[in-house]
Amino acid sequence: METVQELIPLVREMMAQKPSRKLVKLYVVGGVLALFGVVLSLMETVCSPFTAASRLREEEAARAALQAARERQALQALALQEKDKQRDAILFSRALANRQHAS
Asked: CB-hemisphere CA count at 13 Å for 90?
């Protein structure tokens, strides 16, 4: 069925053949399911730009969180290196102080 205009002659032809009640029920159920499919696809088409925008925002938020976590890890590593340097400097100065007294 390419157009709705073809649907009316089809229904008239079917009714002229006097189908049984079960067949009419089957046609009605099929038509209702097809109508639901059309409505759902239209809703999906209309709403898809909004869902794409929300996905984009979620991805950007995830990237920002990942970058923030990397920055925190880098800062923690830098702080540990500073502590190690300070500790090494203290140990080295003590070694020099001991060496001066020992000589």
From this structure: 6
SS3 category, 83: helix
Structure tokens at 44: 């999906």
pTM: 0.41
CB-CB contact of 50 with 63 (8 Å): no
Q: How far is the C-alpha of 51 from the C-alpha of 12, rounded, in Å?
A: 42
- Judged against a pLDDT cut of 60, whether residue 103 lies above it is answered with no
Q: Which residue has the tokens 């009640």?
A: 21
Query: Tokens standing for 41?
Result: 């696809």
**Strand segments (E) across 12-92:** none
User: Residue 77 corresponds to which amino acid?
Assistant: A
